[in-house]
């Protein structure tokens, strides 16, 4: 089916999921929208995140997407069920795939989750993990400094290391913990720093791979996989600084970004979805 797949995030974080999608489903065309101007979503109230998410969704629906990937944990925690109920295309979030991947990796059933304030407060990971196995122990930690650091392109070096060290201190050395979920799609961009800080005995899990697997299963089941003869040109849109977006995308994606544009999202009256 020659319709694109839509991918949304508050900023550049969803590129970590887009990369996995492009690897596992290379014949698909993707339209990525990052709300970089209003990033971070993590500290914002639930209603605001929902409104912004719907604005992104409306933008992509006009581009005739066949599937929506909510490549943002905060938006997944607050809006996934609503989106799944309201839209007539498949909608996939990143929390359940992340939880599944962590469960298959954890031997001791003792799993840490790092994420935005919104994601951790929502307890969405805890619920998803315990729904699969109620005996799992979950330790959540909100990490507000990490998203602004990544959006500002501070991805390596002493400053990045120091911020990661300070932020992860409450989880470091926790007895019994053997797995850590990167519960924010921005964090895989600094996975090496997190792994170095937590130590090699901790399995660091990102949800991208498992999310892409879920997308691929659903498309195959619905017989709506794409059949482009040549690699399609993906489209990227950002509501904020295009050059910052390009610099992270160029470092992160396997292919150069060919089409990247600045967009304005239309505010919607609160009664309209
Ligand atoms: N990348 C997002 C997430 O997975 C959002 C980060 C933010 O905007 O605070 O939660």
Structure description:
By secondary structure, the chain is an alpha/beta fold. The protein has two domains: 5-93 and 209-262, Rossmann fold (3-Layer(aba) Sandwich); 95-207, Rossmann fold, CATH 3.40.50. The protein is built from eleven helices and ten strands. The strands form two sheets. The chain has a six-stranded parallel sheet with strand order 4-3-1-2-9-10, with helices on both faces. Helix 2 crosses helix 3 (73-86), helix 4 (95-105) packs across helix 6 and helix 4 crosses helix 10. The longest helix has 16 residues, at 46-61. It binds D-glutamic acid (DGL). D-glutamic acid binds at residues 9-11, 13, 39-42, 72-74, 116, 119, 147, 184-186.
Given as residue ranges, the uncertain stretches (5+ residues, pLDDT < 50) are none
What Rg is obtained from the alpha carbons, in whole angstroms?
Answer: 18 Å
Q: Average pLDDT, to the nearest integer?
A: 94
CATH class of the largest domain: Alpha Beta
Total E-strand runs: 10
The domain count comes to 2
Span between N and C termini? 27 Å
Number of helices: 11
- Structural class comes to alpha/beta
Bound molecules: D-glutamic acid
């Amino acid at each position: 089916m020659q319709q694109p797949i839509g991918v949304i995030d508050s900023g550049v974080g969803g590129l970590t999921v887009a990369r996995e999608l492009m690897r596992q489903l290379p014949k698909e065309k993707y339209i990525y929208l990052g709300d970089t101007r209003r990033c971070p979503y993590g500290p914002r109230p639930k209603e605001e995140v929902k409104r912004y998410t719907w604005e992104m969704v409306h933008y992509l629906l006009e581009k005739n997407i066949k599937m929506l990937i909510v490549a943002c944990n905060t938006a997944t925690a607050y809006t996934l069920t609503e989106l799944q109920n309201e839209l007539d295309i498949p909608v996939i979030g990143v929390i359940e795939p992340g939880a599944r991947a962590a469960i298959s990796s954890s031997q001791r059933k003792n799993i840490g989750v790092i994420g935005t304030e919104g994601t951790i407060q929502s307890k969405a990971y805890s619920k998803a993990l315990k729904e699969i196995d109620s005996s799992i122990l979950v330790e959540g930690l909100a990490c507000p400094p990490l998203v602004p650091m990544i959006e500002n392109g501070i991805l390596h070096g002493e400053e990045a290391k120091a911020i990661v060290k300070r932020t992860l201190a409450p989880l470091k050395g926790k007895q019994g913990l053997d797995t850590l979920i990167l519960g924010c799609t921005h964090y895989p961009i600094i996975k090496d720093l997190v792994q170095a800080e937590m130590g090699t005995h901790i399995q660091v899990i990102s949800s991208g791979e498992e999310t892409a697997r879920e997308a691929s299963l659903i498309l195959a089941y619905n017989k709506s996989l794409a059949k482009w003869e040549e690699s399609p040109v993906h489209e990227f849109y950002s509501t904020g600084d295009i050059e910052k977006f390009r610099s992270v995308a160029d470092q992160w994606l396997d292919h150069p970004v060919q089409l990247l544009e600045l967009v304005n999202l239309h505010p919607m009256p609160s009664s309209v979805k």
